[in-house]
Amino acid sequence: MAVRRRQVIGVTATVGALVAVGAAPAANADFDDLFQPFIDALSAVDPGIAADTDPGSALASLDSLFDGWYQNLVSTPIHDLDQWLFGAADASAAGSAVASGSAATAADTFTVPLQVNAVTEPVVNVSVGGGADAPVLVDTGAAGLVMPIWDVPWTGITGLPTSFNFGQFGNSLDYFYVQLPTTVTFTDAAGDHVTADSSVDAVLFAFPANFSLSGPWSIQDYLGPANVVGVLGVGPNALGPTPDSIPTAALPGDLGKGLLIDQANNELIFGANPLTGGTSIDGAPWTTLDLSINGGTHQAVSAVVDSGGVYGTMPSSVLNGIQPEQNGGLPDGTTIAVYQHGTSNLLYEYTVHNSNGAFNSPIVTSGDSMNTGNIPFAQQPIYISYSPAGTGQTIFGGSNAIQP
Known about the structure:
Elements: E1 19-20, H1 36-43, H2 60-86, H3 102-105, E2 109-113, E3 115-117, E4 121-128, E5 134-139, E6 143-148, E7 163-169, E8 173-187, E9 193-208, H4 219-223, E10 230-234, E11 258-262, E12 267-271, E13 275-276, E14 279-282, E15 286-293, E16 299-304, E17 313-315, E18 335-340, E19 346-351, E20 354-355, E21 358-359, E22 363-365, E23 369-371, H5 375-379, E24 382-385, E25 393-396, E26 399-400
Parallel strand pairs: 5-10, 6-9, 16-23, 17-22
Antiparallel strand pairs: 1-7, 2-12, 3-4, 4-5, 4-8, 6-10, 7-8, 8-9, 11-12, 11-24, 13-26, 14-25, 15-16, 15-18, 18-19, 20-21, 24-25
Signal peptide: 1-26
Domain PE cleavage protein A C-terminal: 111-394
Pfam families: PE-PGRS_C (PF20729)
């Protein structure tokens, strides 16, 4: 059977992360960062244009001339236009995190409903720029909010674009997007809401990565059974597309510390980890895990703990001669056990089903990295911590700190 995979792959064919094809500037970067590629191109002729490395050279005058032209004719007018259209940054402005009500400024925890579509797809609703709620996939294997530009209300854009770039899903779908500053709002079951000042990667167009006429031509086609309009990437050390602009990390106060994905109870909980006694590993989603196949010796493997990875992937290098089936999955009855690296602490285990219409197998791939898929999230709550900055932590399991 054909298996649709939602894990995302970078330009270096690394499994399990969504990555932009190029380095995007910071989400709050100046609009003139958009002109950096042109500056870089000119720097190939005149290194002084990018930086005054040799102000005494004959080219220094060209450097000064370009800088003056750029500031007077490009940078200053653009910034003036930005201020005229959107006003100065103000935490009290409507739609900002501070203006979102007491739930945004006082609460140290906030819970929103979560549902699981198509067995492996955790989904929550978000409102972008004050628009209608839209379902998005909660994806620990990616960073940043990606959705079609027609789902982003222009009235909710809070500034000028901060970057244009390419991204890719699963080595199957390429897309070109513009990063737009906006607000991202989550609503709980009681109707209260909390808002982050963040950005959205608004997709302008998409096309099959392998140019197959039968391939997906839009995010909706690619995401298929998930029944969502976009992807909410929440992984602090995911490869992209915009790890510097993760809406859940931009939530106000303690709410931005991390999030608990509790699929069994259909909840996504923002704030400090409400559970105790879990097993913590460094990195989220990228980390090192120990893997045992069919009870064999533990093998260290680079891994992506990926809630949006469907049933995941398994590198052929760890299979010790086990051959995949025609559908790319492992043989029926194969057992997989995953441990905290360097310890005997079991994180999760399961038996592969790959016969009689049942399927929960990782897809065998080349390379040396593994994607967990959604299996561990289906078995236990998993907390994604944004500390330490840039790498984060993943905490498997745990129990309520206060028992009723």
